[in-house]
Amino acid sequence: MKKFLLLFILGFLIVSSGVLIADDAVVADTTSVAVAAPVVETPAETSAPAPKIDTGDTAFMLICSALVMVMTPGLALFYGGMVRRKNVLGTMMHSFVALGLITIIWIVYGYSLAFGKDVGHIIGNLDWAFLKGVGLDPNPDYSGTIPHQLFMVFQMMFAILTPALITGAFAERFKFKSYLIFLAVWLTVVYCPVAHWVWGVDGWIRNLGGLDFAGGLVVHIASGTSALITILVIGKRKGYQKEIMPPHSLPLTLIGTALLWFGWFGFNAGSALSAGALASSAFVVTQVGAGAAVLGWMFIEWIQKGKPTMLGALSGGVAGLVAITPASGFVSPMSAIIIGLAGGVVCYMAVNMKEKIGYDDSLDVVGVHGVGGFVGAMLTGVFASVLVNPAGADGSLHLLKTQFLSSVSVIIYASLSTFIILKIIDKLFGLRVEDVEEQQGLDLTQHGESGYRF
Known about the structure:
Blueprint: H1 2-24, H2 55-82, H3 88-115, E1 118-119, E2 123-124, H4 148-166, H5 176-199, H6 204-208, H7 216-234, H8 250-269, H9 277-305, H10 310-324, H11 333-357, H12 365-383, H13 397-428, H14 435-440, H15 442-447
Helix pairs in contact: 1-13, 2-3, 2-4, 2-8, 3-4, 3-5, 4-5, 4-7, 5-7, 5-13, 7-12, 7-13, 8-9, 8-10, 9-10, 9-11, 10-11, 10-12, 11-12, 12-13
C-alpha cells in the first residue's frame, strides 16, 4: 500500500507538471473544447449583451439529453446479454442503479466539482452545490443559447454512463453493496476532476489545448483504465480459462448495441450544444466511424478465425463509436473512416491479448473503451481540422504531443486513484462475493430474483 501511495504522489506530480505547462501555453480558454459558449466580439465601450435562450437549440439539447440517458439502459442490455444466465439481472442492475445514485450526487455536488469555478486548474468549487445558481437562464461559459440547467442535465447523463462502463470488466463477481460505494467514490474522486480538467473553464487540459469533443478522455480512457485496475485488484472469475463462459443471449446484446448506437448520436452531436452545422458534422462522422469499425473488426476476425461472429460485429460497432467520440467535432467523414477502421482493428487485437496476458476482463471494457478511447484521442491529433471546427485545431505534431500528454495524465490519475479506492473498500467491506455465491450467481445471492423462469 505504501508503494502505491508513493506512486500516487508521483502521478500527482506528473499531472501537476501538466498544469504548469498549461499555464504557460499560449492558447485561448474557449478554443479547446466545444462546451465553451461562442465568443461574441463587442465594442470595448459597450458591455456584452446577455445571452438569450434559443428554442431550437433548447429542443435539440432536450432530445440529446434523453438520447444519452437511453445509453445506460442500453448498456445494461448490452452487458446483460454477454454474461451467463445466472448473472443477467445483477449485471443489468450495476448499470441501472447508476441512474438513481449518480443523479442525486450530480445535483448535490458533482456538477459543481466538474464545472464550477476553477480551483487550481484541477477541480471546481462548490458554489453550484445543490444547484445553487444553476437556473433556467443561459450561462455564458457553458450554455450560450440553452438553459444552464439543461447543460447540467446533459452532462449528468455522461456522468451516469461513465462508471457504469467499468462494471463490464468485473461482471459476475462484485458485491453489490461495495459496488454502490465504489460508484459514488469513483465519480467524486476520478470523474469530476477529469471532467474539469478537460471541459471546465480554466481546467488544465483545456488550457493546454487538448481536444476531446465528447468524452474520449473523460469517459472512455478514464473508465477503461479504471476497469483494468479493478480486475487486477479483484481477480479472475472462478473457472476462468478452465470453463466455457459464453454469452447467454446475443439477441439481448444486439438490442443493447442498437440502443447504444442510437443514443451515441445524442452523445456526440449534442456536444455541439446547438442545432447547427457542427452538430450535423458530428452526427455524420459518428455513423461513419462506427460503420467502418464494424467492417474492420469483422474482416480481421474472419481472416484470423475463419468465421465472422455476431458478437464481433457488435463489439466492432461499439469500438468505432468509442474511437470517434473525441474526434467527432473535429474531423471530416473521410477521416472518420480511418479512425473507425483503426478502432475496430486495434480494439480487436487488444481484446484478444487478454487471453495471452491472462487478466479477466469479463466484457472487454479495457480492450474496447480504454484502448479505443486512446486510439481516438491520438488520431484526433492527426486528423483534426479547423475547416470542420474553427474552435479546434489542425492536426500536427504539437497537437499529437498534447493529446498524448493529456491521455497519459488521465491514465495515471485514474489508475492510482482507482487502486486506492478499491483497496480501502476491500479493507472495510470486501469487494468479491463468496465462492459459493459466485457459483450460485449474483441474481439470486445479491438480489433474490432470477432473470428467467423455466
